[in-house]
């Protein structure tokens, strides 16, 4: 037993050191964002700033258009997540709990479409949205990320675990299909919905490719485009660049801290990948 | 009477079913199925979409013939093939770390979080951090190497020979956490009595790893291999932010070429032929996966 304890302690320390090394880029980013620009490249690296410039750096980053990009990202991410989760949940319930002609054939189509890499349809998607005047609008960006096969798969697994007797007895009491979905099945799989919603939030917040192609006007930019632009403007002011990077990651860290268990379990469960 | 009632119930259920799946199905048909078919058609045309529909010209196989004489595109194919190397490297490192985290340490959840952080962070922000860290003369990486006495360290992302390996390193760093999480889940599903039986037989750690863990985890490994390889063909964000395919096309990849051709050079037809090649590659990998699955994986 003592040998076991000793070995565990050894590996925890060894892995801890490795973990710190693994996180060095994050630590460096954080520490640089606290520094005066002239101290950024001091060597050996000063992990704690000699002179703190935290408030000034962040104030300067946030004084520009950053707050607007942030607002845009929050709006787009929340709207996309809500619509996406709803559409996926409806479809997942339909495919798992309702019987209708052609259901299995439709599901095979969905499975087949899952194999299509998103970039293979990118150009026609752009042309379609251009034709509909949805390029350079937030609605267009929300729409393009609102339909997700992975979400439908994941939630379908959970709906299949809901006992049919609950739904049948609700229907005996005169509840329609939509009411059984909303008031019985949906609440029963709420943890799975929460997990998927957190993942979708993270993926949408981090989405770079669609905003890059679909948005043109600076005032519509998301945070990912915003920090990129910021990087171009302040390309040699590294303390500000890092303060921008920290600001862009922060909401994810908060969400992740709150839902860390769900995210990790969700990823492990489905082997989900955005 | 009862029959009629049933029929009514069934019809209502069918209508409800269609309504429930309709939003997703419509979205997928309009935003995925039709665009993929569109890519297929457009790949046989010579077209700049700015010129309007009147400007479309049928080009037969011209685009595909051009693709194979296009140095930048061939380079991008090669780079994508090289990028595949990141997948087995990530898998091996992740499996070792996953075993250690699963069995050998305290604070298991903390370690999962640590390795998972790069995966959930924004690629753009992470790319900016690495860009500064890899700064040729002032960055901490090279300052560290110079302090060790390497007077002329590589210029990393700005060096034609080191840019691709640098990107691969960052890619491994990002993907590691995802692989670890999936492996830990896989490890937990290996029956404990297998290890107990091996203990009784006096097997050492290596034999247990080689003869129990590796075969039992092979479905997970296979899953990570396939999704990793397909994912490596979709890589874009990191390259668009860090190198834009440079220096001298040394880091260009298929999706970056596609993006550049379609949205900077406005060659709609030609870009569509690249999209089709990408689609075919992913299709072939999926088909190979289905063939290989039976031979490769021990259940």
From TrEMBL, chain A:
Origin superkingdom: Bacteria
Domain ABC transmembrane type-1: 70-259
Keyword hit for Phosphoprotein: no
Protein name as it appears in the record: L-arabinose transport system permease protein AraQ
Record membrane topology: Multi-pass membrane protein
Keywords, alphabetical: Cell membrane, Membrane, Transmembrane, Transmembrane helix, Transport
Taxonomic source organism: Paenibacillus pseudetheri
Membrane-traversing stretches: 9-30, 74-95, 107-127, 139-159, 180-203, 237-258
Protein family per UniProt: Belongs to the binding-protein-dependent transport system permease family.
Compartment(s) of residence: Cell membrane
InterPro entries listed in its UniProt record: MetI-like, MetI-like_sf
Automatic annotation (TrEMBL), chain B:
Domain ABC transmembrane type-1, first and last residues per copy: 76-289
Subcellular location field: Cell membrane
Membrane topology according to the record: Multi-pass membrane protein
Main subcellular location: membrane
Key words, A-Z: Cell membrane, Membrane, Transmembrane, Transmembrane helix, Transport
GO biological process, alphabetically ordered: transmembrane transport
InterPro entries per record: ABC_transporter_permease (IPR051393), MetI-like (IPR000515), MetI-like_sf (IPR035906)
Pfam families, per the entry: BPD_transp_1
PROSITE patterns on file: ABC_TM1
One GO cellular component, as annotated: plasma membrane
Transmembrane segments: 20-44, 81-101, 113-133, 162-185, 212-233, 270-292
Family: Belongs to the binding-protein-dependent transport system permease family.
Protein name: Sugar ABC transporter permease
């Amino acid at each position: 037993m003592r040998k076991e304890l000793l070995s565990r302690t050894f590996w925890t320390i060894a892995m801890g050191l490795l973990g710190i090394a693994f996180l060095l880029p994050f630590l460096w980013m954080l520490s640089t964002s606290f520094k005066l620009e002239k101290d950024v490249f001091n060597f050996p690296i000063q992990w704690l700033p000699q002179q703190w410039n935290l408030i000034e750096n962040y104030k300067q980053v946030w004084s520009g258009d950053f707050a607007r990009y942030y607002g845009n990202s929050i709006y787009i991410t929340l709207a996309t997540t809500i619509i996406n989760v709803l559409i996926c949940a409806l479809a997942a319930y339909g495919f798992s709990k309702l019987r209708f002609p052609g259901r299995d054939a439709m599901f095979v189509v969905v499975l087949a479409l899952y194999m299509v890499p998103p970039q293979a349809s990118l150009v026609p998607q752009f042309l379609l949205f251009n034709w509909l005047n949805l390029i350079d609008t937030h609605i267009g960006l929300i729409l393009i990320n609102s339909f997700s096969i992975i979400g439908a798969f994941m939630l379908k697994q959970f709906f299949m675990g809901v006992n049919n007797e609950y739904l049948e007895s609700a229907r005996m009491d005169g509840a329609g299909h939509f009411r059984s979905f909303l008031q019985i099945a949906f609440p029963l799989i709420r943890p799975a919905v929460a997990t998927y919603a957190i993942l979708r939030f993270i993926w949408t917040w981090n989405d770079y490719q669609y905003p890059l192609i679909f948005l043109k006007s600076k005032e519509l930019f998301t945070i990912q485009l915003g920090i990129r632009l910021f990087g171009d403007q302040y390309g040699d002011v590294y303390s500000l660049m890092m303060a921008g990077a920290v600001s862009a990651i922060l909401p994810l860290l908060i969400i992740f801290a709150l839902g860390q268990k769900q995210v990790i379990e969700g990823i492990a469960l489905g082997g989900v990948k955005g | 009477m009862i029959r009629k009632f049933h029929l009514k119930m069934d019809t209502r259920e069918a209508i409800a079913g269609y309504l429930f799946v309709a939003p997703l199905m419509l979205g997928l048909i309009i935003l995925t199925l039709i665009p993929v078919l569109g890519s297929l058609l457009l790949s046989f045309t010579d077209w700049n979409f700015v010129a309007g529909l009147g400007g479309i010209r049928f080009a037969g196989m011209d685009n595909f013939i051009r693709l194979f004489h296009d140095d930048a595109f061939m380079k991008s194919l090669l780079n994508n093939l090289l990028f595949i190397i990141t997948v087995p490297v990530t898998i091996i490192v992740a499996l070792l770390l996953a075993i250690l985290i699963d069995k050998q340490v305290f604070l298991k959840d903390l370690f999962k979080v640590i390795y998972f952080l790069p995966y959930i962070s924004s690629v753009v922000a992470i790319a900016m951090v690495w860009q500064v860290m890899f700064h040729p003369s002032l960055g901490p990486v090279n300052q560290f190497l110079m302090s060790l006495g390497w007077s002329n360290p590589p210029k990393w992302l700005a060096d034609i020979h080191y840019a691709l390996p640098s990107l691969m390193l960052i890619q491994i760093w990002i993907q590691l956490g995802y692989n670890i999480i999936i492996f830990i889940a896989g490890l937990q599903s290996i029956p404990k009595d297998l290890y107990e039986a091996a203990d009784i037989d006096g097997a050492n750690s290596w034999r247990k790893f080689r003869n129990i863990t590796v075969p039992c985890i092979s479905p997970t490994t296979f899953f990570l291999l396939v999704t990793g390889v397909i994912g490596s063909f979709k890589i874009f964000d990191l390259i668009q932010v860090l190198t834009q395919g440079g220096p001298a096309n040394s880091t260009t990849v298929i999706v970056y070429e596609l993006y550049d051709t379609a949205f900077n050079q406005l060659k709609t037809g030609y870009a569509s032929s690249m999209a089709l090649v990408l689609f075919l590659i992913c299709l072939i990998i999926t088909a190979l996966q289905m063939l290989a699955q039976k031979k490769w994986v021990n259940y």
